[in-house]
Write a structure and sequence with these properties.
single chain, alpha+beta, Jelly Rolls, Arc Repressor Mutant, subunit A, 43% helix
Length: 290
């Protein structure tokens, strides 16, 4: 029997530990060709309010070389990626755009899990019109706190977009969910185990305990987890703990304190995980400024 997802919050534990901060940088029409240059750790969220356009990408970036957008849409880049908007030379499409700063940059769990590009018509996301109405109202005239409020509204839009993607795991050009974290969170049984691990990463997580959280046998859970997430449960747990350790090291926490919170016997055990996953010790990793 598949457990329902009602009452299960699949995003809060992720977004609490690994935040995303938006910064609006453009509002208004774009005409001709507009080039967006990638910056380390930054994604983009564009809202095309009116008009049509073509988006192009260089080959080998993981995004389609050419995409036509014919209705108001969200255009989301979770990772740094150069892209060009091609609009009419005059009276081009109308946009509100923001950069997205992902905590941890490319190591942010959702930034890693998402496709290179998500294009989603505004009409497909239920409830989006209320957030957009507030955002557009803030951009149409200068008022106190306008920039701060617009930034927060972009963060609300991102959460609504992520929620929609979780609820529609088959949204992709190929018609099936790509292997990874989103695919795992889109499967009700795996989602319960993943959320439990996300909320309590320092607990003693065995395969049996994860499978119990999912309401499955160990063998069936391990097989389905690998098929959907692309990692074994043990490897995913190690990756999740490593991402947390990296974030806390950046925040000035000591390796010993982090190791204790993440369930390791000592700092040496956590150091071994660093070497195994990154090829360098925590000290070397920090010196590199990754």
């Amino acid at each position: 029997m598949t457990l329902p997802l009602e009452g299960l919050d699949r995003l809060s534990a992720l977004m609490d530990r690994f935040r995303v901060r938006a910064h609006m940088f453009h509002n208004g029409p774009l005409c001709g060709v507009t080039h967006f240059t990638p910056e380390a750790g930054l994604g983009f969220l564009h809202v095309m309010r009116r008009g049509t356009m073509v988006v192009t990408h260089r080959a080998g970036t993981g995004a389609p070389k050419r995409v036509e957008i014919t209705e108001p849409s969200l255009v989301f880049y979770p990772r740094p990626l150069a892209h060009d908007f091609h609009n009419a030379p005059v009276e081009g499409a109308d946009f509100t755009c923001a950069t997205l700063a992902f905590d941890g940059g490319a190591s942010h769990p959702l930034a890693r899990a998402l496709p290179a590009l998500v294009v989603l018509p505004l009409s497909r996301v239920q409830g989006l019109e209320h957030s957009l109405a507030l955002l557009f109202a803030e951009t149409e005239q200068v008022r106190c706190g306008q920039r701060l409020l617009a930034d927060r509204l972009f963060e609300v839009l991102l959460l609504q977009l992520l929620r929609w993607l979780l609820d529609h795991p088959d949204h992709s050009e190929g018609g099936s969910a790509p292997v990874g974290l989103l695919a795992g969170l889109g499967e009700p049984r795996l989602a319960r185990a993943l959320v439990a691990v996300h909320e309590a990463p320092g607990d003693a997580w065995s395969l049996a305990r994860m499978a119990q959280s999912a309401g499955m046998s160990r063998s069936a859970f391990a097989l389905l987890f690998k098929q959907r997430v692309g990692q074994t449960p043990a490897d995913y747990l190690a990756t999740w703990r490593l991402a947390i350790a990296q974030a806390e090291l950046r925040g000035g926490q000591s390796l010993k304190a982090i190791a204790e919170r993440l369930g390791y016997a000592n700092a040496s055990a956590l150091s071994r995980l660093f070497v195994q996953k990154t090829g360098v010790s925590p000290r070397e990793w920090m010196k590199a400024g990754v």
